[in-house]
Write a structure and sequence with these properties.
Nucleotidyltransferase, domain 5, binds zinc ion, alpha/beta
């Protein structure tokens, strides 16, 4: 049984949880490495740009960053979060949208260059683990997380088990269909949530309502000042998420739903219409318990903290 299939320890802490672990977040533009405490706090961190088109150079950057933070009192196993589709045993990358990995043996390559045990997880899942163990999902039994950034990512932890799926690519919640015959998605399907509820979709919707192009920074200002077209675009995003959540809740029955990513910074302006839409569709079953809908609390450290948490869990399992 692999760590990604096992239940997270609840209540009792693992014997090695006091030992700090290293978490690595390999994104399309930046690689970050952090030393993380057993409580999920980032103690120190370093980062460098990602050599996205050169896998060998990328490994060297990771090795150099890790060397900076290696210390005798840090657990040997390191956790890695990466923006990639990975196989079910978490040793190979099928492909990565922004990094030149294709059917790439990432686990072997990293273990060779770092000379220590490595555990790898998809970055959205790692962020979910961080929120579940240390952030907005703390204390929950089952959690659904939507990360609403440039695209829409997802993570599902059901009864303490991270859902990775039969082929390793489960919980791609951005590709739940919310509009039959809707907009064409990068995945090849039509009407995916990502096409209506990502940061990209928000900008597109706002531009349409304003009748002119708009940059993300300007849109943020327009939202802050309460400009009606910007608000309307955000409400459209919220409604699509609310509707998708009704479907996700029907399948997964989470006790908490966590919204992360840049768009969730809108806070109540997003959550209020989202709640309304959710309640409108969820209404007929109003006797059922309703999950809490909250915004993520780990910010952009979620990747490194989640990776470090998985390293800590693996370390505990091996002991
Ligand atoms: Zn899609």
């Amino acid at each position: 049984m692999r760590w990604c299939r096992r239940a997270f320890p609840r209540g009792e802490r693992l014997s090695l949880s006091v030992v700090d672990t290293l978490g690595i977040d390999i994104g399309g533009t930046k690689i970050a490495v952090a030393r993380v405490s057993g409580e999920g706090q980032v103690l120190t961190s370093v980062s460098a740009p990602t050599p996205a088109d050169d896998p060998a150079a990328l490994l060297q950057v990771v090795a150099d960053l890790v060397a900076n933070l290696t210390a005798p009192d840090v657990a040997p196993t390191v956790g890695v979060a990466c923006a990639a589709f990975m196989n079910e045993t978490r040793d190979r990358v099928y492909l990565a949208p922004n990094i030149a990995w294709k059917d790439y043996p990432l686990l072997d390559e990293l273990e060779a260059v770092l000379e220590r045990p490595v555990v790898i997880e998809n970055d959205a899942n790692a962020a979910g683990v961080a929120e579940f163990e240390h952030g907005a999902g703390r204390g929950a039994r089952s959690m659904v997380m939507l990360t609403i950034g440039t695209g829409v990512g997802g993570a599902v932890i059901s009864e303490g088990i991270l859902l990775t799926g039969g082929f390793g690519v489960g919980a791609e919640l951005g590709h739940v269909i919310v509009e039959p015959n809707g907009r064409l998605c990068g995945c090849g399907s039509q009407g995916c949530l990502e096409q209506y509820a990502s940061g990209t979709a928000l900008v597109r919707e706002a531009a349409q309502l304003l009748g002119r192009p708009v940059e993300p920074d300007e849109l943020r200002e327009l939202l802050a000042s309460g400009a009606p077209q910007a608000r309307e675009a955000l409400v459209s995003v919220a409604r699509h998420i609310g509707r998708a959540l009704v479907t996700l809740v029907a399948v997964l029955d989470p006790d908490v739903i966590v919204l992360g990513g840049g768009v969730s910074d809108a806070g109540a302006a997003l959550i209020t219409p989202l709640h309304e839409e959710f309640a409108r569709h969820y209404g007929p079953y109003s006797e059922r318990p309703v999950p809490r809908i909250v915004t993520a609390s780990m910010g952009n450290t979620a990747g490194v903290v989640g990776a470090a948490t998985l390293a800590r869990l693996t370390q505990g399992e091996a002991s």
